[in-house]
Design a protein that fits this description.
With 138 residues, this protein is an alpha+beta fold. The chain is built from three helices and seven strands, in the order βαβββαβαββ.
Amino acid sequence: MQIKHFDTLPEDAVFIRKEVFVKEQGFKNEFDEKDNEAHFLVGYENGSPVATCRIFYDPAKSIYIFGRIAVLKPYRGTRLGSLLLTEAQSYVTAKNAAKIGISAQVRAAGFYETLGFVRQGEEYLEENCPHIYMEKTL
């Protein structure tokens, strides 16, 4: 997979997020103000966009947040998500990040745990989908 970095929301990330979060999972409020300040990664297979992640700094918590992590359905289970998050971690490590946070869908929490993230606090709902906040110390 080839991973590209973007400082503004690229159309390829919009496409992936609409496919996964809006069409497949039924989210209504997929795009928000964080898209105006975030850094984006898009993973490509044979020139086609297949995975994305956004990264932003939360000054209130002094932590980088990874979010809107999505892999198109045909590419799930092929380690592309792990590759994408490894690249995202390298990006924030270069900025001297000490921790990473993720608001994870509960059904994906096990995946994030394999990458070193630890569940924090109680589950909560985002658009009627159970989520859990997770952190990883770098």
